[in-house]
Design a protein that fits this description.
192 residues, mainly alpha, 10 helices
Amino acid sequence: RPLDRVQRAERAGECVRRRGVVLERDEVAVERVQALVRVHEELGEDVLKGVVDYQRGLSYLAGGNPDRAMAWFRAALQKNPAYDLARAKLVELHFARQQFAEVASLYRDGQAKGSSPADEQTLLRIAESLEKTGDIRSAIALLESALASNAESNPVLYLTLANYHRQAGNLEKASELERKGKARLAAGSKSP
């Protein structure tokens, strides 16, 4: 619809110019309509990507309404299944409610759609949820993948992974990871 307005405004401007009369006001109107179309297209892109729904979710969360926030975060994911920020907020909220199966499901859905958690807190929440739902192997794989892609990771990731390997009976691997995690902790505490 806004494009129709632009076209009509441009035609009106052309009509006026054809008659030999140039009204500055018409050109300004055309520019204003074109600017509105650009804003509309940008917003339309954000709407399609789920950004607006995610922002609404944040507003509801800030207002103390996590249930409504979750609904908006889910709406954002429906529009954009790879929207990791919305998925991370849902993970955070379900984890806080100890809904570990929901967290694991969100992770698996994201994994199937090529999404992966970026921040370490979300990784740890997902790993713990996988472990609590009996899928220690997936928890281990998740944290190993995170460490492989970022060797400078938080020592807590190393120590958590060591714990999961210990639970799985991989004691040698657990000891190695625990040493690395403790070394990172010691190195971090010596920094200014």
